[in-house]
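Researcher: Batch entry, complex prediction.
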Amino acid sequence: MEKALQGVILQFKEMYEDRVKSLLKDDHALKAADLETLKMQLLKAPSSLSSVISRQISTQQTMAAMREVGEAFNPLRTEAIETFELLENKKRLLIEAENEMYDLTLPLPAQDSGYLHPTTQVIRELNSFFRYHGYSVYEGPEIETAEYNFRKLNLPENHPATDQQESLFIMQPDILLRTHTSSVEARALTNLEPPIRLVVPGKCFRNETLSKTNSSFFYQYQGVVVDKGITLKHLKATLEQAHKFLFGEDTVLRFRYKYYPEVSPGMGVDMKCKFCDGVGCDVCKGRGWLEMLGSGMIHYNTLKMCGIDPEEYTGFAFGMGLDRQVMQKFAVSDIRKLYGGGVVYQ
Amino acid sequence: MIVPIEWLKEYVDIKKSPKEIAASFTALGLMLDRPIENNVLDLEHRMDRSDWLSIVGCARDLAAMEGLPLKSPEGLVPESAGSGGVEIKVEADDLVHRFNTRVFRGVKVTESPKWLRERLEAYGLPSKNNIVDITNYVMVELGQPMHAQDLAKFSEQEIVLRRAKTGEEITTLLGEKVKLDNETLVLAEGKNLIGIGAIVGSPATAVDQNTTDIILDAGNYNQSNVRKTSRRLNIRNETVLRTEKFLHPHLTQVAIERATKLILELAGGQYFENTDYYPKEIPLTKMELRYLRIEKVGGVFVEPQTIRNILESLGYRVLNTIPDGLKLEVPYFRTDVQVEDDIVSDILRISNYENIPLEAISAAPPKEVTPEIYNFEEKCRDILVALGMHEHITNPLVKFDENDTDTGQIRLENSLNSEQDALRTSIYKTLKPVLAIYRKHKIGGAKLFEVGLTYYKTGKRYEDIKEVRTIEGVVSTENGVVEASNKVKAILAAFFKNLGVDNVRYEKSDAVGVNTAVIFQNKLALGEVRLDSFTLFSENLLKAEKSQLRVRDTLMHKTTEDITLEVDADKALGPMLAKIKGSSEKIADVFVADEFVKGNKKAITIRLTFESENEMGRAEVEEIKKAITKP
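Model: Structure tokens for the complex:
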């Protein structure tokens, strides 16, 4: 019995190695092979084996012998079945590759793919620059107190910028929707110890009559740096690096004095219009320059009110409106459309 | 500020072209608001510098920058012919700081000379007659609004400055009838109102060609009241533009002397001293400037002699030198100078910012303090986009909902827009309408999300106001709510899978009502799901337990088994399935494969997928199944 078993196994092995496994390396033969029949022939082997067994031994011993045979034979059989699966797949691919199964030139609708809001995209672009340069992103509440929105920023009561009619109040005169991201600067300066290096993207609100370019809510992007030895030179270099990153190495900036209550000295920054190269056109309203942002050295009083010694530390801040930049980049004509009222993504 | 260059040249002898002059003004802090036309510069208005609303003020800065002398206009303090005899009574002393008056008698009102007419016209003010033109001229030249009135038209020889009585009316010089209230400063004589203080005059006492005796006033007022009143009455004019800024009371004296000279020259007559109401004199500010501060803030060294020259050309008076610095008197017209750094600004500004070199920050970056929630929400955005959802941002300002009494809606007190007078309590309200825009564009199957805040309050203190970080998703229901809710659930399942948030269960709750379920992990509420939308709370989502099950390097044996249970037909199955899943760690998935309703019961076939490293024996599977089906 032992001998008969060995014989069948050997026969099976030979057939498997010669006629089946060899096909794995021979694409030509595989294409021509009749895998169906081959599989039937090969897998027939165990049943012929069991007939051998039953002819030679008594029924009582059959079950035990069958188990023995099975244990010896099953791994081989499993391997053979897996090989057939591989071969069948490979053969199908070989045949498909030869025949034009599918017209790959056909246009088809795109599968669903989402899109980030343009403002998120611009914020991420800015964040990527500033985070690379060691800035953290900082946040603060949108509903603010007059303390952080005005007073700590050197905007005492009665200052024109604190005009109650320009802010949206929840409870006059102390609780309002923040009118700028500078309120977050005031919180950061109060809560953190220098050195500080932050950017703040966020929503701001003003009591505006709505128009194409004015919305009651809009986005600002603020930057704040406080450390020992920070000067206007660093502010200028930072803004130039950032603008070159965003708008290309050929960007030309102009730095000029500009008053903002929360800084002193204040600085306005313009970019030479790329549409007309500074000659003057519709885009730059004939100025040749586009106003990019407001900035300056953080006001002495602001540092003091936020608990930072202005004799030991100096710092700069800059803030820009994001919406105009976003609208230009994505060719959106109306700010109301940008925020809910009418952009769709194709 | 409109600056006709021909007029400007009276004070500074500049040879540059209008374009070059505009470039200098830009560096000084005054950009062009419009392109140059007819040799007239239209410079922007800045909030702080009240002296930049005068041509002399602009000329002074320009002269300092160009290194040219400033030729100040001349005033005249001649012998007064006597007392004017017009009584000035200031009753609203909180609204009037100074009221400086002079009386002129025997003037001849005529057309102004050509040069005067042309200058005013270049500025944009129409010429009226020599007296009115002189007041306007001095206002534009020096920045101090002035006001001349015909004394013959007064019933009483007095001017009373008081608060208006509510309901009082006045007709302005423009012929408009204006209703006044108690917050409005008015000028009155006898029973007649003759002007709104610091804002506009009245035709009742206007100077005309028959006028011979006039009273001239130059006042200094509470600028915050002027601002509020002019906004309330909706009056914007050349006077308000200046009186709403911080002007020094000393300017009234400079201006009235200048006007006196011009009136006597152009209209003749005699001048009489009259009351100068100025009860609390405001002294000039004295300040110290340390040379080192310039370097500390500006990063550049400026020679002490240069510093001194710049400051003196801007009108600062050097009182004395201190060690490494100067003690200075700030000129009266520089009401913007508050701190030493403002003087530093002046020096850097006049030296031109373009001359400050650039230097990259070399210090090591400070500690990273980006809040975890910020990065987390960014990750959520990326996952939702990868799941085919579009991000939108909608306006958090909505119309106040009178019927909503229980969400703690926050109403704005002063919105100009009645459609936007409250803050949203859910993003669904503002995001859902965007789907309609997709329908209009015929873009089917839209799936949208927004990451933002919702707002509510529980009381009246700042601490009672809450902002809730929320992620909202909505899907289009154009193919019915079943398809929509399947999409919503599939998105959520994939979203949680990507975040590694496991063991999420959906529970019905009476608190949220029908067709809504609360999403939990253990006891943590992650949000809510509705037929067409979901709301997730980022803060809780961040707190949820997370595991990373998506990467696996061992082969797992999978077995699928069905079990059938009978339950009440209206039973929500989610919690039961979640419980089944939690009953053995070898159960990887549980879904309902089939259900059959008979009467008030239904038979459900639940498909269990078992997973384990070693092949599971029949007995083990049966044991888990038995534990599940056990009543």
